[in-house]
Amino acid sequence: MRNRIVIVGGGTGGTILANLLATKLHREILNNKVELLMISDSPIHYYKPAFMYVAFNAFFKQELMRPQQSLLSPEIKFVVDKAERFDLSRRVIHTRSGKQYAYDFLVFATGCVPWPERIEGLAQAGDHFYQYQAARQLAQKLATIEKGRIFITVSFPETPNVPHQCGIAPIETTLMLDDYLRRRGVRKAIEIVYTYPSVSQLLRNCLFLQRPTAEALPAIFAARDIRHQRGFTLNRVDTQRQVAYSAEGEEQPFDILMATPPIRAVEAVRNTGLSDIHNGEGWLPTDHQTLQVYGQQGVYVIGDTVDLPVSKAGGSCHNQAPVIADNIVAELRLGQTVSHYDGKVQAIAQMGLHAGMPLVYDYRHDVLPTPPTKMGGMLRNVFNRGLYWATVRGLI
To answer: pTM of the predicted model, to two decimals?
Structure first.
């Protein structure tokens, strides 16, 4: 009897996992004992972490995209369609085209989407860099502003202990912005203000999610003349007056509102009803170690759709994918899971336009900040320009 493994989503996590499974199950796939299927709503794969570079006109669109099929091993069947409903009791996926796909193993690799509409006025007055067109719009504003005030704010999901998308990105883009405006020769005429919400899920009254980094930031910002404010939880935006109001009763005027917006799971995942918390965000209840969806046999989740207290970023997917691959293979061959995820995330943070800082953390250990270096910046550039594509192919 043939077992079908279906991965829904062709982003970083889904692509790495599919290629790892194709390698580990090569013999079973050739002998028609296993079918490995990926369903994605787009034939194109975007290197989404590069969208923040688009905001500073440092990437062209063609540089950050590849045909999804070109990134997949030939053993993987690739279907361009949109999963619109998951019938978990019958173990069937319903797609927009009207087709149905039964599965023995299912992996949610569906990512997350910005949800600025959750905050009054943010969708109309705010800018962000988490999607390509939004980043292009922000790029136009940053390239033409001559004087004024750029206000940077971060919004967290309402679900406890779930962080915002790509935890270090607000700091990266704040420092990149400072460099960018200096390069343009307008920095002295533009005020930069960075804020962080009162409750960042794990810590209170800080500037970042993890304490060592939060403690290092004030000196970094002071050296660059970047103002900062703790305890600013964005509550609403007055689009006419261009003023952001906080739940704490503060207000911040702006010429550009550069926001990390609220996020949520995609519609089909929200509609499964699996989320433990009914706030509309839809994060799947995830076993911290095995990465299985609680209460669902043979169902796993990777990347941004988890409800884990780790960064929703590619550096998480890179470590989650081998765990899920090993566990699916072990379930097929041994009838049980064998591998555990320790919460590890690694990346090189872009600390300005040309400097980088390696970072590593897991469930038990926070990031330990180190001085940014040009060598770190070069390593990040090498990853952006080439190594990423080897990573998603499962080669690194």
So the answer is: 0.95
> Tens digits of per-residue pLDDT, 185-217?
999 999 999 999 987 655 555 667 677 787 888
* Gap between the Cα atoms of 62 and 258, Å rounded: 25
Asked if 252 contacts 264 with a C-beta cutoff of 8 angstroms, the reply is: no
Structural domains of the chain ordered from first start: 3-112+265-344 (3.50.50.60), 116-263 (3.50.50.60)
Cα separation of 30 and 10, whole Å? Answer: 23
How far is Cα 334 from Cα 55, in angstroms, rounded to an integer? 48
What does the H/E/C string look like for 42-106? CCEEECHHHHHHHCCCCCCHHHHEEEHHHHCCCCCEEEECCEEEEECCCCEEEECCCCEEECCEE
Structure tokens at 89: 């009791």
DSSP 128-161: -SSSHHHHHHHHHHHHH--SEEEEEEE---SSTT
Helix axes 169-184, 211-223, angle to 10 degrees: 10
Helix intervals (H) in the chain: 12-24, 26-30, 51-54, 122-125, 132-144, 169-184, 211-223, 267-270, 314-333, 374-382, 388-392
Which of these, 340, 376, 379, 346, lies nearest to 361 by C-alpha position? 346
Token look-up 């990346």 returns 347
Nearest 10 degrees: Cα torsion 345, 204, 173, 236: 130
Report whether 207 contacts 228 (CB < 8 A): yes
Residue 388: name the closest of 29, 7, 45, 3 by CA: 45
Residue type present at position 95: T
Measured distance CA(333)–CA(336) in Å, rounded: 8
- At residue 212, φ and ψ (nearest 5 deg) are -60, -40
pLDDT, tens only, 319-349? 999 999 999 999 999 999 999 999 999 999 9
| Alpha-carbon span 155 to 145, nearest angstrom | 24
Q: Are 248 and 198 in contact (CB under 8 A)?
A: yes
- Kindly state the DSSP code that residue 266 receives in the 8-state scheme: -
Spatial distance between the Cα atoms of 191 and 50, rounded to a whole number of angstroms: 25
Structure tokens at 141: 């504003």
